[in-house]
Design a protein that fits this description.
Largest sheet: 5 strands, antiparallel
Shape: flat
Helix content: 40-55%
Distance between the termini: 171 Å
Number of strands: 22
Protein name: RING-type E3 ubiquitin transferase
Keywords: Coiled coil, Cytoplasm, Lipid droplet, Metal-binding, Nucleus, Receptor, Repeat, Transferase, Ubl conjugation pathway, Zinc, Zinc-finger
Strand content: 15-25%
Pfam family, one: zf-TRAF
Radius of gyration: 56 Å
Family: Belongs to the TNF receptor-associated factor family. A subfamily.
Number of helices: 21
Organism: Podarcis lilfordi
Length: 655
């Protein structure tokens, strides 16, 4: 017997030992119609790939058979080894046995299978004459192969669905990772487009029939629509898919536009994800109000525009969302409010007590309103009302007392001893009469005291006015005694420095002083520049202004002279170093013309007189104060004298 005949006999003996299956299970097995006309023999490279795949699938297929059939496992191994020994010329030629076209049709059906079923069927067709056995043997073997394939297929699907990390993904996740939905430049070619999602291929895979799909799309299609290719309805299993790395590399090298609105950058598709992580135009949700903004605008929105940003009340220091601040301001007990009657500023929690007890212009009822006085007036007018309407109030009280007496008189008299007035009642009546007399006397005393108080208030106002005038005269006299040297002490200087750091304007004017008696009246202006000022940030500016004085009509104008400005070093030692500048007046400037108002708005001086940093380095600040010195030396305008007809005369000779 030839070697091939021996193998066939051995195969029949082993197949006859396989268990039989019920007809219902056999009828449920899929049938594969012959397609001899479209059959093409595989090439040598395809056969080599098939042999390698069979080696990988051999353990899985052998594990699918029942444990009591070691003979079938041996036959499977021998059949695969036999098939691997066949030469490519024999496979391509169709074989010299008795197979013929019938074998070709069955091989065509075999190529449509995959996984354990394909390996098992290839076992049965390993030789051209392998199926020359009886129909019963063939049916039994086919049933065993179908059962083995179905069990392995079900196990593979269950494993892939339950395991999210083993290469297959859940349906919900696969729906999220369809093709690349981006704009390509130039537009995407159709060969890189997924036929299912109509987008660029993501994780491109290829089917045995030559079609390309996104991995997630084709896996979902197989699970939802059945094991077939969506293009040509060829039978297709997940295990038949293989990655198309060439297409993947080509697609990732294509140029795409950033999908974020406003961004015009272009990059390769492989860099798109990194770009979107840092793209300033990417949409981002505000963590406070959940509105969507671009990434480069989200920080400004959170800090300045978000209605849910946290802010604090300047009065009570309570933190709240910004959208609730307006309501809080209307209810904050520590907020400053203005009395609607006297315009006094006080905190809200003091307002009720202010209305009831302190407000001088709040409307209050008359003290005798329980006795019938209907008048309402301001609190500061209540005393005058009480004084003017005292007789009226007395009549009201008398009428009230009379009504009470008549009411008691209308009560029927009971002669019983219990209704007689006791001595205590008579004593109460006498006490009431005495108190009424005292009330009248005290009322007159109150009126006299009010009149005296008004007189004293008028006298006090006159005294304050006199003191103010005297202080102004003293200041005027002192300003005339300086003889052109003025020393200005600025106290609480730290308050001005803090205001400058907060970018608030700091401008300080000195009192006026005279250059002599008679002389020009001047004043100084010190300006601490803010940190954001242009060209003079963090500098002290110092200027001189002319003022209206009592000698202006007797002085030549414009003012001319030399001015020395200094900030004094207040250290104790002898090595003092004052910071000073000397300037000459310029008659053509408006700053030195005769002022038409109390203080000339135009000044003359130095915008960058001294840096704040230099001011803090030495002892220019002492006891929170600085000293500014101004020395003025005037000179006579000879030209003006000549215009008026004066000519200088030489001095006499020495006596």
């Amino acid at each position: 017997m030839c070697q091939s005949g021996f193998r066939r006999a051995e195969g029949r003996a082993q197949l006859s030992a396989l268990p039989s299956f019920p007809p219902a299970q056999l009828s449920a097995l899929p049938s594969f119609p012959p397609r001899a006309a479209s059959f093409a023999f595989p090439s040598a490279s395809f056969l080599a790939r098939r042999r390698r795949r069979r080696r990988k699938l051999l353990p899985r297929c052998a594990a699918s058979f029942p444990p009591a059939s070691p003979g079938l496992r041996l036959s499977l191994a021998r059949a695969i080894s036999t098939d691997e020994d066949e030469s490519p010329g024999r496979e391509e030629g169709g074989g010299g046995g008795g197979g013929g076209n019938g074998d070709r049709a069955e091989v065509t059906g075999l190529r449509a299978l995959s996984g354990p079923l394909r390996v098992t069927m290839s076992l049965l067709h390993s030789n051209n004459s392998s199926f020359e056995a009886s129909g019963q043997d063939s049916g039994c073997c086919a049933a065993m192969a179908s059962s083995c394939s179905a069990g392995a297929k079900e196990k593979s699907i269950n494993t892939s669905v339950s395991n999210g990390t083993g290469g297959t993904l859940s349906n919900s996740f696969m729906e999220e990772i369809q093709g690349y939905d981006v704009e390509f430049d130039p537009p995407l070619e159709s060969k890189y487009e997924c036929p299912i999602c109509l987008m660029a291929l993501r994780e491109a895979v290829q089917t045995p029939c030559g079609h390309r799909f996104c991995k997630a799309c084709i896996v979902k299609s197989i699970r939802d629509a059945g094991h077939k290719c969506p293009i040509d309805n060829e039978i297709l299993l997940e295990t038949q898919l293989f990655p198309d790395n060439f297409a993947k590399r080509e697609i990732l090298s294509l140029t795409v536009k950033c999908p974020n609105k406003g961004c015009h950058q272009k990059m390769e598709l492989r860099h798109l994800e990194d770009h979107e992580l840092h793209c300033g135009f990417a949409p981002e949700k505000c963590p406070q109000c959940h509105a969507i903004f671009q990434k480069n605008q989200i920080q400004d929105h959170i800090k300045q525009e978000c209605p849910r940003r946290q802010t604090s009340c300047p009065n009570c220091a309570v933190w709240m969302p910004y959208e609730e601040k307006e309501v809080h301001d209307q209810m904050c007990l520590l907020a400053n409010v203005c009395c609607e009657y006297c315009n006094t500023v006080l905190i809200r929690e003091q307002l009720p007590n202010h209305y009831d007890n302190d407000c001088p212009t709040a409307p209050v009822p008359c003290t005798y309103s329980p006795f019938g006085c209907p008048e309402k007036m301001q609190r500061n007018e209540l005393a005058r009302h009480m004084q003017e309407f005292t007789p009226v109030h007395m009549r009201m009280m008398a009428q009230t007392l009379l009504n009470i007496t008549n009411f008691h008189g209308a009560i029927p008299y009971d002669p019983s001893p219990s209704c007689e007035c006791s001595p205590e009642v008579h004593n109460f009546k006498e006490t009431i009469q005495q108190l009424e007399g005292r009330l009248v006397r005290q009322d007159h005393q109150i009126r006299e005291l009010i009149a005296k108080m008004e007189t004293q208030n008028n006298q006090m106002r006159d005294l304050k006015r006199t003191i103010r005038n005297l202080e102004e005269k003293v200041a005027e006299v002192e300003s005339q005694q300086c003889n052109g040297i003025f020393l200005w002490k600025i106290e609480n200087f730290s308050v001005y420095l803090k205001a400058q750091e907060e970018d608030r304007p700091v401008v300080i004017h000195s009192p006026g002083f005279y250059t002599g008696k008679p002389g020009y009246k001047l004043c100084l202006r010190l300006h601490i520049q803010s940190p954001n000022a242009q060209r003079c940030a963090n500098y002290i500016s110092l200027f001189v202004h002319t003022m209206q004085g009592q000698y202006d009509s007797h002085l030549p104008w414009p003012f001319q002279g030399t001015i020395r400005l200094s900030i004094l070093d207040q250290s104790e030692g002898s090595s003092r170093h004052n910071h000073e500048e000397v300037m000459d007046t310029k008659p053509e400037l408006l700053a030195f013309q005769r002022p038409m108002v109390d203080r000339n708005p135009k000044g003359f001086g130095y915008v960058t007189f001294m840096q704040l940093q230099a001011l803090k380095q030495k002892t220019y600040i002492k006891d929170d104060s600085i000293l500014v010195r101004c020395e003025v030396i005037t000179r006579l305008d000879l030209n003006s004298l000549r215009r008026e007809g004066f000519q200088p005369r030489s001095t006499d000779g020495a006596a």
